[in-house]
Write a structure and sequence with these properties.
The protein has about 110 residues and is of the alpha+beta class. The chain has a single domain (about 5-110), classed as RraB-like (Alpha-Beta Plaits), CATH 3.30.70.970. Helix content is about 40%, strand content about 30%. The protein is built from three helices and four strands, in the order αβαββαβ. The protein has helices spanning about 5-15, 35-50, 85-100, and strands at about 25-35, 55-60, 70-80, 105-110. It has a four-stranded antiparallel beta sheet with strand order 2-3-1-4, covered by helices on one side. α1 (about 5-15) crosses α3 (about 85-100). The longest helix is centred in the C-terminal third of the chain and has 17 residues, at about 85-100. The radius of gyration is 15 Å and the shape is globular.
């Protein structure tokens, strides 16, 4: 689980790398993982109703050949996040995944707006 301390370290790394202006809006991606692609497609509708934009569903890389096929759902938003707002959002995503029977909220990534 991504906790507040993890997010603080993430922000400190962003400041060191100097590739992103964390005081501005950035492009945020959020990832959900499940073995049922259809369930992820249905979940996308709920996320879109919350203002997130569908980006893709793609097959996760297997660690072992005998592992089940899993899929990632990626949604995006353009947003300015603080440590606290990102922490709150992560907690909401964990709960949302649980309530909607999605195997796992897998975290976030950030990029510059192009």
């Amino acid at each position: 689980m991504i906790n507040r301390e993890t997010i603080i370290n993430f922000y400190e790394d962003l400041k060191k790398e100097n590739d992103f202006n964390i005081d501005e809006k950035l492009l945020w991606s959020y990832f959900f993982l499940d073995t049922n692609k259809k369930k992820l497609q249905d979940f996308t509708v709920k996320l879109e109703q919350l203002g997130y934009k569908f980006e893709s569903i793609f097959e996760a890389e297997k660690i072992n050949e005998e592992d089940d096929v899993e899929y990632y759902l990626q949604v995006i938003e353009i947003q300015h996040h603080t440590i606290d707002s990102l922490n709150d959002l992560n907690m909401m995503f964990y709960k949302l995944a649980e309530v909607n029977d999605i195997n796992h909220y897998d975290g976030f990534d950030v990029g510059n707006i192009e």
